[in-house]
Amino acid sequence: VSGPQAPERRAHRKFGARLRGALLAVSRARRRVPAAAWACALIALANGLAWSLIVPPFEVPDENAHYAYVQQLAERGTLPHHVAPEGMLSPAEDGTLGAIGFYEIVGEFHNPAPFSQAQQQAIEAVERQRLATRGDGDALTATNNPPLYYALAAVPYELGTSGTVLDRLALMRLLSVLMGAVTVLIAYLFLRELLPGQPWACNAGALVIAFQPLFGFISGGVNNDNLLYLAAAGTLWAIARIFRRGLSRGEGLLLGAFLGLGLVAKLTLLGLVPAAALAVLLGLWAGRRRRRREALGGAALAVAAALAPVLVYLVLDRLVFNHGVVPIGIGTSGLAAGGFKSSIGEELSHIWQLYLYPIGMRHQFVYVPLWSTWFKGFFGRFGWLDYTFPGWFYYVAFAVTAAVCAGALGELVRRRVAVRRRLAELAVYALAVIGLCVEIGVQSYREVVSTNGVGRFEQARYLLPLLGLYGAIAVLGVRSGGRRWGPVLAVALVVLAIGQDVYAQVLTIGRYYT
Amino acid sequence: VPARRTVAAIGIGLLAVTLVAMLLHAGPRRAGSDRTPNGAFVVILTAGQQACQAAELVPADTAALRLTIGTYGSPGPPVTASATDAAGRVVTSGRLAPGWREGVVSIPVRRVTAARAPARVCLTDAAPAGTPGRIAIAGVRGDPGFTILVAGTPEPGVRVRIDYMRPGRETWLQMLPTLAERLSLGKSGLVRHWAWVAVPLLMVLAIALALRVVLADGLPEREPRA
Q1: For residues A203 and A191, what is the distance between their CA atoms, to the nearest angstrom?
Q2: Phi, psi (5° rounding) for residue A79?
């Protein structure tokens, strides 16, 4: 067929074929994901939505600061900057925070959320004033964060243009919930990659993650941690794929993409960089003979994909935003204005004591962080760290955790031949844990130095990038029951996780509404 | 499979029983609070003296004022409480009989049918003048914008904590309509009218789906292709 319209028709046909191809690829990719993974993601979505509706506005840690960051980005197109003394937020946000009683509720366990219609009328009166949405550029504790999460959150912020601060916050919370669901989806894929063979156990592991109440609580709020969790889960998944399938261009790109994404979401992901680097090196080593070119290409793509967003951020930061990237690393703490003396020795000691008992060191904590901060915090400390489960709950949680960990250890011993074969991979995950712990420790020490020993940085939510490994322990724990008792253990563990999550929600309703 | 189903049924049954037990647990419930921290005793009253603070919101359904009051170890004297609106009309009043023990104390007042704000709340050590003993009321010092009048003398920056209590003891079940209403306050107009019904529905959906996944019969298993 020829004629004046033939090239146009051919172009249409070409476009149609490409579109069909793309749709087919998406459909194939979707079909590659097990139905249970989608179900777990849907469960996390429902749970996160419930949390986002229960928790009053701005009661997720630093939500006021994260909102201010998004507002600065959306309203002025620039990143926030510190204003000394601490600057005002926008009149709209400040007015809303005052009207809902934020400053009286936050951190004050006995103070409830608005109870009466009179308080609601006061909030609506502030909303009717249509106060200015531009502040003086300070986003408080969020100011130094990289911008990716906030750039994404600017979309729901803009969708709520005709609405109020609370409307925009509700829309932004939806984005976080969605990120939580994707995190669980990826964590499921990580578990299937890491521990293939018994899908029922992976179902249990992913469900334990989906019902983890601290995760649900954070994913129901506006916080860049949500994108960090997603990126960290993706990094672990990509690492597992490299070990199972070999380092190819695709696997390298996947790893680099998640790392790059995470690094411009929150610098805490730097803690996983050593593990990712080791995984790539081991992938190169494994592919040195038969798949050398493919492995080299994968490594190059991993590095490029990880660095590209970071470099873009650094360049934009330098040339456009003048935002100031925070130096992160041991020995970067410097000297506080008040004269608090920092040293590398004390910093290393601080990092050690944050997780382990001090041996021959000056005690830096009057409590045991492993129990008070990490264990109790991980299993349930909510709000701005102002309410918890009753004391007995943590002992029950400890007993269950000890049993699951013992089961997981037993399973590793039982499968020691396979474990020995995969020791290098195990070392990478161990390095991921150590890397993240050191990263948190460095930031914790910086906080100690900058506040002359008064401030406390560490919170259990910083461990949630390791959710995938938490799920893996659950998978190993239930698999220790074998084919006969394992599925029963899986059901029991999931029901316990559901119970903990529901209890946490009841606790939250009691905290804010009674 | 039957064993798994049995475990799931027992687990969810226990969860449901625990939830019902929580819903049926009765206790004194708040109608509201002035959200003042009560970290220190900030007002001292001797027999016959009165302390009054303004800018209070007296919520509907208030039937008692709850405060933290110290008596220096002695049995408590009679204490009266009253609330007046901006026009000086009495919103409510009540009296605590003598002999109470120091700590968290509830002063019963006539039930308030509609919220009033701003209201002025006054507390009086109603022991006959000259009676020895004094009471200390907890609150906060250094709260700008507030002034309390103690025995007629203004004390800037001082505020006592008052929780406004609903009548009697209530279970969460009895309070469900109130809880639903509270869940709708202070939130975005996009969600506030349906949040109370969406939360249980979402959780039922999540739990049902989780059980289906973990019991695995309902979901076809597709192995991921390498």
Answers
A1: 9
A2: -85, 155
CB B214 within 8 A of CB A207: yes
Residue B110 φ/ψ, nearest 5 degrees: -65, 140
| DSSP at A142 | G
CA dist., res. B201 & res. B27, Å (int): 27
Mutate to test the interface with B, among A49, A184, A190, A483 (most CBs of B within 10 A): A49
Rounded CA gap, A485 and A139, in Å? 52
Q: How far apart, in Å, do the first and last CA atoms of chain A sit?
A: 77
Place of tokens 């649900």: A216
Alpha helical stretches, state H, A317-390:
344-355, 369, 376-380
What is the tens place of the pLDDT at every residue in A120-132? Answer: 999 999 999 999 9
**B103, burial (CB in 10 Å: exposed 0-12, middle 13-18, buried 19+):** exposed
End-to-end CA distance of chain B: 30
Angle at which helices A467-479 and A225-245 cross, to 10°: 50
The alpha carbon of residue A90 and the mean position of all alpha carbons in its chain are separated, in whole angstroms, by 27
HEC profile of A148-182: HHHHHHHHHHHHCCCCCHHHHHHHHHHHHHHHHHH
Strand partners, B65: B107, B164
ipTM for the complex shown? 0.91
Using pLDDT thresholds of 50, 70 and 90, give the confidence band for residue B222: very low
Q: Can you tell me whether residue A27 is helix, strand or coil?
A: helix
Count of A-B CB contacts under 8 Å: 194
Average model confidence (pLDDT) across chain A: 92
Calculate how close chain B gets to A380, using CA atoms only, in Å: 18
Question: For A39-69, how does the pLDDT look when each residue is reduced to its tens digit (9 = 90+)?
Answer: 999 999 999 999 999 999 999 999 999 999 9
**What is the sign, positive or negative, of the torsion defined by CA atoms of A218, A221, A227, A228?**
negative
pLDDT on residue A340: 67
CA atoms of A485 and A481, how far apart (whole Å): 5
**What DSSP line would sit under B51-66, residue for residue?**
EEEEEEEE-TT--EEE
Window B:4-63, CB contacts with A under 8 Å: 4, 7-8, 11-12, 14-15, 18-19, 22, 29-33, 35-38, 57, 59-60
Q: How far is CA A7 from the centre of its chain?
A: 50
Of A167, A499, A509, the CB nearest to B189: A167
Distance (Å, whole) CA A447 – CA A333: 9
Up-side HSE of residue A179: CA atoms within 13 Å toward CB?
Answer: 33
DSSP letters along A283-296, please?
HHHHTTTTSHHHHH
Q: Report the predicted TM-score, pTM, of the whole model to 2 decimal places.
A: 0.92
Tell whether the torsion through CA atoms of A238, A464, A180 and A223 is positive or negative.
negative
